[in-house]
């Protein structure tokens, strides 16, 4: 296990280097001059040139990239071009908000998805099975920003049950979490159903039934544990998707999170903040997938992670 974790951590290095290079090149290929945005549309060229010199934008791209990577290694993500404050001060509080939103949405997705998938698999081709799969199809088909707007209109504006925007109080959490977690719940439900049906058809399940083992024990003790490996994989991938989907959810509900900061920074050509946001999301995504791989060993002792 230790060897596997160390090897995966070393594999993280080239992935993050590739991410930083791609983001760096994409941001510099984007039309617009951040120095011009900072100086104003009517600023004289001399002012723009001074800002470019101060920010190091006149340096060759390899020099700028080397300076950025050197700072990251030292724990310095740079200074925001827009706010003129350390990037970490802008990113850290918003990152916590986005992680909180993604964790809550993941918990909701797992809870609803597992229950729906198990019921659907155990009662295959029944009315419950067909109904759950139709609902799951709708959950997959609805864009989360549209679902968010509909929930806001009905439950916040028409009924007044929840605050329409913001984050922090229990009432402000419910609608964004439902919006972000619905698609994930649908995917987990479909995967759970498929995996459970495959396991239920195995010989050892039929043997357990022939021995008179209670159906509840067969489903939850024998079938579900062996069906969880592909489901856990999907959950890990979904967490990364939720971090990306949080961008639209935060915009709809005016949540001051990392996704909203990322969109604002792209619009303002705030290169250091954009690079920091994507780097942090990439690190979280890779770490979550590492935890998913480690969980395989606990779900199935026969799996050798070092293979």
Automatic annotation (TrEMBL):
Sequence intervals crossing the membrane: 12-29, 101-122, 134-157, 169-189, 227-248, 273-292
Residues of the ABC transmembrane type-1 domain: 95-292
Protein's UniProt keywords contain Transmembrane: yes
CDD domains reported for this sequence: TM_PBP2
Subcellular location, record wording: Cell membrane
Primary location class: membrane
Keywords associated with the record: Cell membrane, Membrane, Transmembrane, Transmembrane helix, Transport
Descriptive protein name: ABC transporter permease
Similarity remark: Belongs to the binding-protein-dependent transport system permease family.
Membrane topology: Multi-pass membrane protein
UniProt entry tagged with the keyword Transferase: no
